[in-house]
Amino acid sequence: MRVLTRVLSACAFTALAVAPALFAQAPSAALPPAATANPVVWSAQMYYARESKYIVAAADEMPADKYGYHPTPDQWTFGKIVSHIAQSNGGLCSAISGTPAPAALHVSESASKPDLIAALKASFDFCGSALDGATDARLGDTITLFRGRQLPRAAALLALTADLPDHYSQMASYLRLNGMLPPSARPMK
After folding, report:
1. In the chain, what is the straight-line distance between the N-terminal and C-terminal CA atoms, in Å?
2. What is the spatial distance between Cα 143 and Cα 18, in angstroms, rounded to a whole number?
3. What's the CATH fold of domain 38-183?
4. Which of 28, 95, 101, 161 could disulfide-link to 156, CB 3.0 to 4.6 Å?
């Protein structure tokens, strides 16, 4: 118990010591109008943009002969992850926008690396357009998602922003297991 008290005291002291320095920083630039008009969609776009770049870079980095790689028999292959992301993006962003996903997003996990990457990029282009047209005001609209369930449109937006980092972490692990450095682990330029 004494150790816990000391740790908590040290954390509290550090927070109090650092807080003035954090607040003394120069004020950040004002948010763009889209951030205040549609703060939920704008915030989702911010995370989406980061994850989509990492995912495409990871797909590019993995050699074509490793697209069939999976660490254990029960785990998906790298190609399956890429195929799933493209198809999942299509379904979720179709629900967000109310427009059908392009047929090109339905690609087999055993397709060639160029075909898988083309579908992946097309899915991110489709989602980018869907998010550009989305508004916070429409997030309460009822949509059909996940095997016919009636949900608010916000569920598709939240599923998209939760799904991408999950699958990127899979891809990053597979890269590391093959001696490669994931895009997010590289020094910032």
Report:
1. 45
2. 46
3. Four Helix Bundle (Hemerythrin (Met), subunit A) (1.20.120)
4. 95
